[in-house]
Amino acid sequence: MTAATTTLIIDTADLASLVAVAMQRDAEQFVLWHPKFNHVDAEIRHDLARRHSSIFGAERFVVTQLNASPLPSTPADTWWTQSELLVHGLGIASRLGCSRVIWPHQVGSDFADVSPVVDRATLISGLCPSPDGMETVIIDLPLLDLTDDQIIDLADDSGADLSLHWPCEHAGETPCGSCQRCRRWVDAFERVGPTWPWAAMTAV
Ligand SMILES: [Zn+2]
Fold first, then answer.
1. Helix axis angle, 148-158 relative to 180-192, nearest 10°?
2. pTM exceeds 0.85
3. 188 CA to middle of ligand 1, Å?
4. Rounded mean pLDDT, 136-152
5. Which residues have CB less than 5 Å away from ligand 1 (the ion)?
6. Residue 54 CB partners (closer than 8 Å, separation 6+)
7. Neighbouring residues of 167: CB distance < 8 A, sequence distance ≥ 6
8. Where are the domains of the chain?
9. CATH number of 7-159
């Protein structure tokens, strides 16, 4: 690993990850890390993250299989999922010489949702040494308090192909458009304006 690499981006192949990687393409070199969960859509997300790595010029693409739930349903479950994610990500960052981790996690503007994630990132960061062992690895959360509409605006402005993400709970040729996750994003795309990226493919 060259000394020029200082940033690791966590890419789960959701829309916020696509925004974060697209925004990074003209900045410093970066490592793209894909945490792979045990879920039906794992191979689809893996393939999308690999394409992000290629299209946006990551210096290196790293994949790690995790055991945590990709769809945490309780606060405790969320705590463990996010903590496992961050500990693995920080460990890889430290080993590859990255002093900064971009975690494009997004929860919206409600302080009650934002605060525990910031606290968790600060806590986990404090536990993990940096590559030089002197300071902690910084975790950036640039999209944390944005709304879904704002994420779509950024994605649209980035010029990225908006179909290069996976909003769905299921696996298929295209996102189903009707599960809870899909409905959230279908509604947001309708509000903001860009066409649902798979509209042409799903129309009969
Ligand atoms: Zn779906």
1. 70
2. yes
3. 14
4. 95
5. 168, 175-176, 179, 182
6. none
7. 14, 15, 175, 181, 182, 184, 185
8. 7-159
9. 3.40.50.620
